[in-house]
Amino acid sequence: MPCKFMLNKNILFAILFSFLIAGAVAVRLYHFDYPVLDWHSWRQADTSAVSRNFVNYGFDILHPKFDDLSKNVSLLDNPKGYRFVEFPIYNILQAGLFIFFPKFTIEEWGRLISIISSIGAIVFLYLFVSKYVSRQAAFWAAFLYAFAPYSVYFGRTILPDQMMVMLMLGGIYFFDAWLGVKPFFNYKFLLAIIFTALAVLIKPFVLFFGFIFLYLAWKKFGIALFKRWELWIFGIIAVLPFILWRLWMLQYPEGIPQSNWLFNGNGVRFTGAFLRWIFADRIASLILGFFGLPFFIIGIIGKIKKEGLLFIAFLASSLMYINVIATGNTQHDYYQLLILPMIAIFFGKGINLVLTKHKEVFNRFIAVLTIFVCVFFMLALSWYRIRDFYTLQHYEVLGVGKIIDSVIPKGKDIKIIAPFGGDTTFLYYTNRQGWPVVDRPFYQFVDAGADYIVFVNPSKSDLGLQELFTPVQIGANYAIFDLTKPTDKGKESMKIERKKDKGKK
After folding, report:
1. In a domain? residue 42
2. 505 exposed, middle or buried (CB, 10 Å; 0-12, 13-18, 19+)?
3. Does residue 184 sit in the same domain as residue 326?
4. CA–CA separation, 73 and 274 (whole Å)
5. Measuring CA to CA, which residue among 409, 117, 504 is closest to residue 496?
6. What's the pLDDT score for residue 5?
7. Residues in the chain with pLDDT < 70?
8. Strand pairing partners for 416?
9. Main-chain phi, psi angles of 270, to 5 degrees
10. Is residue 324 part of a domain?
11. Is 118 found in the same domain as 11?
12. Exposure on the CB side of residue 311, measured as CA atoms within 13 A
């Protein structure tokens, strides 16, 4: 009888988890075919531009390039458009899948990769929490990761962060599995290294979560872990590709974004604004919709059992990451994706405690009803915040970009200026490399190889450029001027600008 009950319980959880995965995929397909004009469109466009350039100009993975040639990112002129941020694992997959399966657009393939990564993260999270707490806790942890509107939205954006989280969780899962078996050099060891190394290559923020690996090793070997040569091999190989990539990047400083500001560039760390933005606005409101917060707190203060300090290591790593990368976390809401597994773990653990301790503390019916009511309001209030993220901003950029792409000659050497306040989204939809801002005299743009300047919703002063350069085409909401064909007034103007700059030197 107990075996039959256990079998039925196993089947029940397998069915529930299957429905959860199917639901997680379904909600991430919401507005799947939307253009890249939603929240963080500039960052998504920059990511997709690297992939598109792989398709157009070949897979030179050691020299990834995007469309922006300005000094906006590195504060140095970037005439070749180098983009040395994360190692382009995400872009290789996006571009490669688009080439082999062009049924989907390159943007849709980007979304699909993020969706698949998100589902992978849910699976690893479920397996890990099942092992150390229970399947019930694992189910609720996976539920939060699957259906929290914050997780849903950023689980389908064209960003490498979701892949980073999946790879990190996979690395932790296989590392934990590897520690429990012999011989040490087996497929679990190999998978642990591959997942961890790739996660660190995408973003070194994963290194903050090294405490989890350290704790798992300490739990297995104690202080003798420092004498285990196989652990040293794991650590070195997992980090070595990132070190080599960073050393390679140093040859191309114009393609390396300024990053010092991420730490505490605006002095926000430990201020009231920092606490409000991270803990009240992002964690409590955006992710947990307020009503999920009690379960998260219960999960933290609940009695520690067979997991030991493992989940505390998750918490400590998350807090260290948030506080060290203080400005980055306050300015970019997608940076909190890295702490989402920790939030999901304690949320699942909290609901599990309420459900398992109801006989001692709670009325069962009231406890279950309260959980479902709170989860409903959590999702509703979080969705109220997240729904605007899907809103398409400046939709005219898409149509104007296509017109410009059809009017301007094609070719790798054709460069344009597409002023859009420094936002590269417009530049992306023109399908050309160039500059998203007018930040220098026109003669310098011409000397740098600019062929055209294009506008969306041009102002009077923008249209006034026809006095300086030959118009190619002017429509109701766009204008294109040929910089290689200046008028007499334009030639004189650039001549004067050139003389002025020479005089300053």
Report:
1. no
2. exposed
3. yes
4. 25
5. 504
6. 53
7. 1-7, 358-359, 505
8. 434, 452
9. 65, 15
10. yes
11. yes
12. 32
CB 125 within 8 A of CB 327: no
Q: Which residue has the tokens 């149509």?
A: 399
Alpha-carbon span 317 to 313, nearest angstrom: 6
Distance CA 468, CA 486 (A): 6
Length of the chain: 505
- Position 436: which residue type? P
In this structure, are 355 and 400 located in the same domain? no
Do 383 and 401 belong to one domain? no
The per-residue pLDDT for 505 is 62
> What are the CA-CA distances from residue 321 to residues 159, 184, 209, 281 (Å)?
19, 31, 8, 17
pLDDT digits (tens, 9 = 90+) for 124-163: 999 999 999 999 999 999 999 999 999 999 999 999 999 9
Q: What is the pLDDT of residue 2?
A: 54
Give the C-alpha separation, 481 to 474, whole Å.
8
Token reading at 175: 């590392």
CB 434 within 8 A of CB 450: yes
pLDDT in tens, 439-484: 999 999 999 999 999 999 999 999 999 999 999 999 999 999 999 9
DSSP E strand stretches across 247-365:
none
